[in-house]
Amino acid sequence: MDNEEKDKNLTAYGITLASKPNYLSAIDYVTAQSSILTSVTNQINLLTSPTYQPSILTAISAVQSHLSEFMTIQSYLPTIDHLKSVSPILDLSRQATLAISNLTTPSVLSGLAASVAANYQPWYDENIAKSSILSASAFSSLNLVDTSKNLASLIGAESLSALTLQLSIVKATELSLFAEKSLLSVTTENLGSKLSLEFEPKNYLTNSFFGLSDSYSTLFKSFESNPLSYTKISPSISKIAAIEYFSIANLLEAISVDEDISPAEELLKNEIQYENEISLSSHLPRINEGLYKMWKGAIEAYNSNNSDRVRHFLTSIRELYTHLIHLLAPDKAIKQWTNDSDYYHEGRPTRKARLLYICRNINNYPFNTYVKKDVDATLAFIDILQKGTHVIDHALSPNHLLTIKSKAESILKFLLEIHFTTNN
Question: What is the pLDDT confidence band of residue 22, given thresholds at 50, 70 and 90?
């Protein structure tokens, strides 16, 4: 589908060429802020050298002052008020983007930084150490406790905490913005057109994603109304919430229209894919060596030239998910945790029960709801593809399959991060 055809499709959906939102200014703004933060992150560990301390400290102070106005991203966002009636999902995504960016308001950020300063190391680990240019081997050998303490003494605990929060919030805003941009091109008419999806699976997918969008917006608005709740969730899993939403929004775009991907977005996608692979390689063997072998088998199917590789890959990923969720939330443990009849079907725990059990130590209802909706939407998509593999296999491009792989691995990573971060 060329640009002219896409414009015709959008016009049929109620969006004229003149009213079609342009995200270029907003993307340029948020990626510029993200790049500045990345530059600081890449250099911050050099603070341990007296030679570099004065200049880097000055740069950090300047960056933090600059980011105190980050919420002005709202002025760069295109107006979508005229689309709310025809695209409620787009409106929900916008609400989330505004809510998360508002956490950088100086008065709000100051309170958050004071809260994080009491336990800044997890935030440093996730948003500075892991995001730096350090190689995996260098990161594994880095003494994170000592490094974070040294940085806190040089920068100040609250200043270091504020920087980690700014990194987290800017990245979440960037992901939310790209998700919104992807959703602009997806309509009820063209959803799944690249795979020739019929009405029933399209409707199933639409309903699942609407539920996810609603819970995503609710989650981020809950942070806006109660900012401290943002610091009560581990930074490693709050970070993935935005990644998950972007990944599935991008997946919907990929199967519906020809994507219009900026270099910044492509780099973001590559970063997500790389982090997924690193995380699964580390976490799966800790749960069960067989899970790791199952994942490697799925990757081998993905990389093969087998004419039936799509079905093999999807089946392996679906089976891996089923085994993982049962190992993280076994029947016996759930029965000890709750006897609520709403969580059982024919004497066995429901999927909802297993997911709530995995999230049991996260005292945040909007977040727990979001995890369930995310899993539901991801599995809805996998189930649709599995049922129609022989029909749509020929329509799946290498980019489609890569996007599907990234989303499937991302949800596995999400559950594993929740497990290891909150239940051990």
Answer: confident
What's the 3-state SS for 80-126? CHHHCCCCHHHHHHHHHHHHHHHHHCHHHHHHHHHHHHCCCHHHHHH
Q: What backbone torsions phi and psi does residue 348 show, to the nearest 5 degrees?
A: -110, 145
Nearest CA among 113, 125, 124 for reference residue 159: 113
d(CA 243, CA 126): 14
**Separation of alpha carbons 295 and 115, rounded Å:** 39
pTM: 0.89
| SS (HEC) of 344-378 | EECCEECHHHHHHHHCCCCCCHHHHHHHHHHHHHH
pLDDT of residue 338: 93
Q: Tokens for 248?
A: 């599935």
CA distance linking residue 312 with residue 386, whole number of Å:
9
Give yes or no for a contact between 238 and 368, defined as CB atoms under 8 angstroms apart.
no
**Where in the chain are the domains?**
1-173, 185-424
Share of the chain above pLDDT 90, in %: 52
Which pair of structure tokens corresponds to residue 139? 């990161």
